[in-house]
Specification:
Radius of gyration of chain B: 17 Å
CATH class of chain B: Mainly Alpha
Number of helices of chain B: 3
Largest sheet of chain B: none
Helix content of chain B: over 70%
CATH class of the domain at 3-85 and 126-165 in chain C: Mainly Alpha
Oligomer: heterotrimer
Strand content of chain C: under 5%
Number of strands of chain B: 0
Shape of chain C: globular
Number of domains of chain B: 1
Number of strands of chain C: 0
Chains: A mainly alpha (650), B mainly alpha (104), C mainly alpha (178)
CATH superfamily of the domain at 3-85 and 126-165 in chain C: NADH-ubiquinone/plastoquinone oxidoreductase chain 6, subunit NuoJ
CATH topology of the domain at 3-85 and 126-165 in chain C: Four Helix Bundle (Hemerythrin (Met), subunit A)
Largest sheet of chain C: none
Helix content of chain C: over 70%
Order of helices and strands of chain B: HHH
Radius of gyration of chain C: 22 Å
Number of helices of chain C: 7
Shape of chain B: elongated
Order of helices and strands of chain C: HHHHHHH
Structural class of chain C: mainly alpha
Distance between the termini of chain B: 55 Å
Structural class of chain B: mainly alpha
CATH architecture of chain B: Orthogonal Bundle
Chain lengths: 650, 104, 178
């Protein structure tokens, strides 16, 4: 095994680059910052890959199961002899898997941004924020302590806020960053309360101790099951509240409203944070506490499953109607994360029952590859077209051949067409859902078909449809001809690498590596079962082909036939409006305004009354203080005489 | 001398004290206020001496207090006159009612 | 009526009349001279009570020091001839009331109080040597500590006087220009 110092370097290298760039680099060597940050993250990636190789293949399973090991543990804030907040590094299959995913995608994004962000005025700042984010995310996945994960959870929230608001001179970006921060903070309140509930009943903050105490019949488990609140046990409440935090970060319905707006950030950021890594933190959190969910509180797990499938389905429908390509991808991200969530939700613990868990992690892994690829491809398109809107695109396949091919690979992968990566993970998820909950399985099938439809709607709209005419010829950028469609080498290489991974990642023997209890499970391939989803996906693709291959009015006709539903979906089912109604009309008017009135009139009024009383009295008595010494001496004399009389005759 | 008792001297010092107080309260010139202050200190000295003479004739504590009061009166007069001169240099007036800037 | 009583009343008259004139005289230089008489009378009282050393100190410090200092300051500020402003009537009346009331209270208090002390011990008429020995003695009833403190106080007062009264070069120059 690698030494703890080298493992600790994995999260520390990005933070060093962040500090170096933010403190000095921005000023003294702004053009080298990108390369510096990329080298740092390359180091992290190499170390992570080594750790993963050694953990899975050299250390190997002990007694048939992968055991979690704590590589580093520092006591940080001891509250009592038993409860302390530690800073540690926990290595187990999911954290090692996440380590590779985060460093790999981060490396790709760093490299891609060398080309994409070239010439930006805040180029160095961008790389420092990326370093901060990578550090926070790595700290999050390596956390050995539930409070440590909370700290890094907030750090990724901050870096996400900074990167969404990167173009802070754009009002929409500022609004989006605020929205993302406030919504996730609101969800984190639930997370914090959940942590406190769990910590109170289990008497520990350490993950391994926590899981052991709350899954085996101990006093702590009995107490937390016995204490009830509104009909549910304290344990279920704690887990549900923790899940609220996860749902906020992972953009689950109804806390998803921030994710589409977060696309205001630079596209590489969307690929890194809002597609591949940060938004799956919620899934990771549930997976981290999965034994407690599965063994002690199946009710909470049902919540996870139903929230997941609802988000997945709604997001898929909304994605069909959006025209901003990044928003389409954002909704597809939300939909795929919903997939992971309900896969966890229908899973059981241990052995073959843990198929859903393994499938969820598998999908997390493959999704990171192809979704990052989709975003980076979209970034290339935007880089060329200078627009986010599908209506401005079309016929780009001749202009951008490499982007076209890799984007097609990613679309096939997300649609679940064999042999691309998404097929394998999606099939495992559907198998798990089939065994777990038939209703969820049905909705998931429909969602899979819709996914294929909207992804190919996107694909055909960008690369086929009408012929592309650079619309901005008149403003001096007419140099974009067929030969200059592709971005520079730095933007193409990540696309190619991720394209290869999107093809090949599905062949990883995931069942042997990442499972709920560390014991390898065998996943058999059942052609009869997997034929259904694939055929549905193909149907979706064909439908998209017929609608969007050539410009025609078929989509408009269909939209016209289901006008009400279409409009509702186009407006994202008015969830934003509901939020605004709740906050503006109900919270502000019914709570905020009376409270403000009370504060202004009663509280301030009392203070003002006291102040004006003091003012009046002092105005009355200030004549006494004349500044004339002899007058004071007179007062003094009469005062002394008065006291003498008082003491003599009273 | 046997007929002159302690009360006689106390009446004297008491009268001198209140003459000083009257002067302090009515005089408008700072130098004359300082003189009134010297009268007050003198009456206290007389008191110390009288008590020492008539009640504790075997001790000398009253004398020492008198000596210290005289010393401090000298120091106080010196400082007060320095202040008066400085004030006069700045405002060309020794009227105590003119020096009334220290108020609200 | 023995001679000592007459002498006492003469001394008392000198002190009180000197004091009264000192606080009521309209010319400031006269006021200082009346103060001088009052202080001399006090010294006479100390002689009368057989404390020659204190009487000598009274004359040297008060008459020779403080009154001379006051006269100097009179000359430095406004000169001897100026007549003083009359006090405000209301304040004068109030001050008179306060003084007479206080005097009446004190007198009644002295009348009603019987003073008693350790009169059985032999009376002491201390010489300068004895006073000096006890003043600098470090034993019980020694006054070395107050003596040193007072010497420090005198030093501080001396430096303070110089600092306060010294002419400030810069503001003075400004004042001349203005």
């Amino acid at each position: 095994m690698l030494s703890p110092t080298l493992i600790a370097l994995i999260p520390l290298l990005p933070v060093f680059s962040f500090l170096l760039i933010a403190l000095g680099g921005k000023k003294y060597f702004p053009n080298l910052c990108g390369i510096l940050a990329t080298l740092a993250i390359l180091g992290s990636f190499i170390l992570s890959a080594t750790v993963a190789y050694e953990y899975f293949f050299q250390l190997g399973p002990t007694a048939g199961a992968f055991k979690p090991t704590v590589a580093v543990s520092l006591q940080w804030l001891p509250f009592s002899p038993d409860v302390s907040i530690d800073m540690g590094i926990l290595l187990d299959p999911i954290s090692v898997m996440m380590l590779v995913v985060v460093t790999l995608i981060s490396l790709m994004v760093h490299f891609y941004s060398l080309g994409y962000m070239k010439g930006e005025t805040r180029y160095a700042t961008f790389y420092s924020f990326l370093g901060l984010f990578t550090f926070s995310m790595l700290g999050l996945v390596l956390s050995s302590n539930i409070f440590q994960i909370y700290a890094f959870w907030e750090l990724v929230g901050v870096s996400s806020f900074l990167l969404i608001g990167f173009y802070f001179d754009k009002p929409s970006a500022v609004a989006a960053s605020k929205k993302a921060f406030i919504v996730t903070r609101f969800a984190d309140l639930g997370f914090l309360i959940g942590i406190l509930v769990l910590a109170y009943y289990s008497g520990t903050l350490d993950f391994q101790t926590l899981i052991t105490r709350l899954t085996t019949p101990t006093d702590q488990l009995h107490h937390s099951m016995a204490a009830t609140f509104m009909g549910c046990s304290a344990l279920s409440w704690g887990l549900a509240l923790v899940f609220v935090g996860g749902a906020g970060k992972s953009a689950m319905f109804p806390l998803h409203i921030w994710l589409p707006d977060a696309m205001e950030g630079p596209t590489p950021v969307s690929a890194l944070i809002h597609a591949a890594t940060m938004v799956v933190a919620g899934v990771y959190l549930v997976a981290r506490l999965f034994p407690i969910f599965a063994i002690s509180s199946p009710a909470s797990l049902d919540i996870v499953a139903w929230v997941g499938i609802t988000s997945s389905f709604i997001a898929a429908i909304v994605a069909c109607t959006q025209t901003d390509i990044k928003r389409v991808l954002a909704y597809s991200t939300m939909s795929q994360i919903g997939y992971m969530m309900f896969a966890l939700g229908v899973s059981g613990y241990g052995g073959e029952h843990g198929l859903g868990f393994m499938a969820s992690m598998f999908h997390l892994f493959t999704h990171a590859m192809f979704k990052a690829l989709l975003f980076l491809g979209a970034g290339s398109v935007i880089h060329y077209v200078h627009s986010n809107d599908m209506k401005d695109m079309g016929g780009l396949r001749k202009h951008m051949p490499i982007t076209h091919i890799t984007f097609l690979v990613a679309c096939l992968a997300i649609a679940g067409i064999p042999p691309f990566a998404g097929f394998f993970s999606k099939e495992e998820i559907l198998t798990a859902a089939y065994h777990g909950n038939k209703a969820i399985f049905g909705i998931a099938l429909v969602t899979a078909a819709i996914t294929a439809f909207y992804m190919f709607r996107l694909y055909f709209s960008i690369f086929w449809s009408k012929d592309f005419h650079p619309y901005h010829t008149e403003d001096g950028h007419g140099a974009h001809d067929a030969h200059h469609g592709e971005g520079p080498f730095t933007m193409l290489l990540p696309l190619l690498i991720l394209g290869l991974l999107s093809i090949g990642a599905g062949f990883l023997p995931f069942g042997r590596l990442v499972t709920s209890d560390g014991v390898a499970i065998v996943t058999e391939f059942n052609p009869g079962f997997s034929a259904g989803p694939v055929l549905l996906a193909l149907a979706g693709i064909v439908l998209a082909w017929s609608f969007y291959k050539k410009q025609n009015n078929a989509p408009d006709q269909v939209a016209g036939n289901i006008k009400g539903f279409y409009t509702a979906a186009y407006h994202k089912f008015y969830i934003d409006e509901v939020y605004i109604f709740i906050t503006r009309k109900i919270v502000f008017n019914l709570i905020g305004r009376p409270a403000a009135w009370f504060d202004r009139n009663i509280v301030d009024g009392t203070i003002n009354l006291i102040a004006s009383l003091a003012e009046i009295v002092s105005f009355l008595i200030r004549k006494i203080q004349s500044g004339k010494v002899q007058v004071y001496a007179l007062y003094f004399m009469f005062g002394v005489l008065g006291f003498v009389l008082l003491f003599m005759f009273w | 001398m046997s007929q002159i008792g302690l009360p006689h001297i106390l009446f004297l010092s008491c009268a001198l004290f209140f003459i000083g107080v009257y002067g302090f309260l009515t005089r408008r010139n700072m130098i004359t206020m300082l003189m009134a202050l010297e009268l007050i200190l003198n009456s206290v000295n007389i008191n110390f001496i009288a008590f020492n003479k008539f009640l504790f004739a075997d001790k000398m504590d009253g004398l020492f207090f008198t000596i210290f009061i005289i010393t401090i009166a000298a120091a106080e007069a010196a400082v007060a006159i320095a202040i008066i001169i400085n004030l006069y240099r700045n405002s060309h007036s020794l009227d105590v009612d003119d020096a009334d800037t220290m108020k609200f | 009526m023995s001679a000592s009583i007459i002498i006492f009343y003469l001394i008392a008259a000198m002190i009180l009349i000197g004091g009264l004139l000192a606080v009521t005289a309209t010319r400031i230089f006269r006021s200082a001279v009346y103060l001088l008489f009052s202080l001399l009378g006090t010294a006479g009282l100390y002689f009368f009570l057989d404390y020659e050393f204190i009487a000598a100190v009274q004359i040297i410090v008060y008459v020779g020091g403080i009154v001379v200092l006051i006269i100097f300051s009179i000359f430095l500020t406004q000169g001897s001839g100026t007549s003083l402003k009359q006090p405000k009537f209301l304040r004068m009346a109030l001050a008179a009331i306060a003084a007479t009331a206080g005097c009446a209270l004190s007198v009644s208090f002295i009348n009603n109080h019987s003073f008693s002390g350790a009169n059985d011990k032999p009376a002491l008429s201390p010489s300068v040597g004895e006073i000096g020995a006890q003043l600098l003695s470090t034993s019980q009833h020694g006054y070395i500590l107050p003596f040193e403190v007072v010497s420090m106080l005198l030093l501080a007062a001396m430096i303070g006087c110089i600092v306060i009264a010294i002419k400030d070069k810069e503001p003075a120059a400004n004042g001349n220009q203005n």
